[in-house]
């Protein structure tokens, strides 16, 4: 199985390829970035993301795309740009009939380091140790892409992953019901 990991970005996009076979340790085949900071036109950056993702897919034929989900960071504007970059990378994968999964940044950090609030440096250090990467990359976007691919690998090879996912979803549903009930109780005049 070959997993393409992508850390989407509208200025720097990280990507990696992780290969694994049953009963063997995963192998890092490729880890790099697409640096498009110098391109002034945002729409041209999106096109470059699409073209590069397609080129990687056509050149390496991965079985699956693991991509980091957008998060609310500095501003809504930057989150929207990040979401567009992610959408373009997903569209490129779908254009080649490639399945994909999204992974939340905190969940990736939790899986890789055991700490959902780990820094990019901590994530990179763990991955350097696991995969024997000699030096820290210039951009953490590359190791973030590897972290997403590695998380996908861990979830695919973990026999309890489905159970954990169901427990998280069940917990979210219960907390949503409790929150709605709290709202109704606190605001009876606002509910018909």
Question: How would you sum up this structure, described in words?
Answer:
The relative contact order is 0.17. Helix 1 packs parallel to helix 2 and helix 4 crosses helix 5. The chain has a five-stranded mixed β-sheet with strand order 3-2-1-4-5, sandwiched between helices. By secondary structure, the chain is an alpha/beta fold. It has two domains: 157 residues, Nucleotidyltransferase, domain 5, CATH 3.30.420.10; 29 residues. It has six helices and five strands. The mean pLDDT is 88.
Question: What is the element layout, followed by pairings?
Answer:
Elements: E1 2-7, E2 12-19, E3 27-35, H1 42-60, E4 64-68, H2 76-95, E5 99-103, H3 105-113, H4 120-131, H5 140-157, H6 161-186
Helix pairs in contact: 1-2, 3-5, 4-5
The third-level CATH topology of the largest domain is: Nucleotidyltransferase, domain 5
Proportion in helices: 40-55%
Count up the helices: 6
**Number of domain modules:** 2
Mean pLDDT: 88
Taking the sheet with the most strands, its summary is: 5 strands, mixed
- Gyration radius, rounded: 19 Å
Number of strands: 5
Q: Indicate the overall shape.
A: globular
- Report the end-to-end length measured between terminal Cα atoms: 53 Å
Structural class designation? alpha/beta
Strand arrangement in the largest pleated sheet: 3-2-1-4-5
CATH architecture of the largest domain: 2-Layer Sandwich
β-sheet strand percentage: 15-25%
Low-confidence parts: none
The CATH superfamily of the largest domain bears the name Ribonuclease H-like superfamily/Ribonuclease H
